[in-house]
Design a protein that fits this description.
The chain is of the alpha+beta class and about 325 residues long. The chain is about 45% helix and about 10% strand. A hairpin with a 3-residue loop joins strand 6 and strand 7. It starts with 11 loop residues before the first helix and ends in a 5-residue tail after the last helix. It binds glutamic acid (GLU). The site of glutamic acid has 11 residues, from loops.
Length: about 325
């Protein structure tokens, strides 16, 4: 049987135009996150998408130059930074399995004795913040500097109004952190970890910046434009695998089925996805589906892999 013809060089500009037109009816269907009050101020009909090819070509559409709150997408940066500095020792304190539970759940943590299932649920991300807090004077500043470096963009910054809004309502994350502290899996003061975590989550980027920032993970751990190695190829492979299995909340199975790419999403409505060896793609639309992933963003990525014939499968 002959293989189906794959387009050698997809027309990304035309494909983004098609996708942008197709998602319009979906932009009114999602629900903007409101449990962090400041996030609910964003209008849900926004949509942006950007592609960063490893050869340096870039494509974007819609609100791709608009900054938005990265939220859980920053968990990927914190993990990459912690993994690059601490290596495999991080796995003594956090697992590598999907949780099958909501990202902010406490239940599993109780019966698994304070060891979070993976670094992308809140409990696991708080452990990453704790690890970075033991290593750097201020872990949130370390993550911010890392984000600026991988995005090649000095204007990347915290949104302190969002950080305050999250910190003032972070009752559940406080509960998670206290529980882990009780199990001995948090070494720094709970307040230090929560404050740093909230500032880290408030980092904003545009889709164009986010796609560029993620490109080192598509290029086996090395920044494409500078040649700087952030992670060795094996570590980059492992982070890609974690993104595929755990990166899109407890919808990771369905996301893999529909999109077929490693990805990390956030409740700000952003999703970063990777086509290893080829490109990074970022999408933003603040209306979320019932699992917490951007509704239009997930659909846009599903169409992207279909129209470009690019996926990891
Ligand atoms: N800062 C958010 C929280 O901890 C991040 C959630 C997310 O984007 O999944 O609730």
């Amino acid at each position: 049987m002959s293989k189906p013809d794959l387009p050698q060089i997809p027309d990304y500009a035309a494909i983004l135009e098609t996708i942008c037109a197709e998602v319009q009816p979906l932009l009114h269907q999602g629900k903007v996150a409101s449990y962090i009050p400041q996030l609910s101020k964003v209008s849900r009909d926004r949509f942006g998408m950007a592609v960063y090819c490893l050869d340096g070509r870039t494509f974007s559409i819609g609100d791709a130059q608009q900054k938005f709150s990265l939220q859980s997408v920053t968990k990927l940066f914190a993990l990459a930074l912690a993994f690059s500095r601490e290596g495999d020792s991080i796995w003594e304190r956090v697992g590598r399995e999907p949780s099958g539970n909501p990202f902010n759940s406490l239940v599993q943590l109780e019966y698994e004795k304070g060891k979070p299932r993976n670094p992308f649920i809140n409990a696991g991300a708080l452990v990453m913040t704790d690890i970075l807090s033991s290593r750097f004077v201020e872990s949130d500043i370390a993550v911010l500097q890392f984000a600026r470096m991988i995005a090649d963009e000095i204007s990347v910054d915290f949104d302190l109004a969002v950080a305050r809004s999250e910190r003032d309502t972070a009752h559940r994350n406080y509960a998670i952190a206290h529980l882990m502290k009780d199990f001995g899996n948090l070494h720094n003061p709970v307040k230090t970890v929560i404050d740093s975590y909230c500032r880290q989550c408030s980092i904003t980027m545009t889709c164009a910046e986010l796609a560029k920032a993620g490109s080192f993970l598509a290029q086996h751990g090395t920044i494409p434009w500078s040649g700087q190695q952030i992670l060795d190829a094996s570590s980059a492979k492992r982070l890609n695998a974690l993104m595929l299995t755990c990166g899109t909340y407890d919808a990771a199975g369905d996301f893999a089925y529909r999109v077929g790419l490693p990805a990390k999403s956030g409740v700000g409505g952003g999703i970063l996805a990777l086509v290893p060896g080829e490109l990074a793609v970022a999408v933003w639309s603040p209306g979320l589906d019932h699992t917490g992933n951007s509704l239009a963003g997930t659909y846009a990525l599903e169409r992207f892999t279909t129209l470009t014939s690019r996926s990891i499968f």
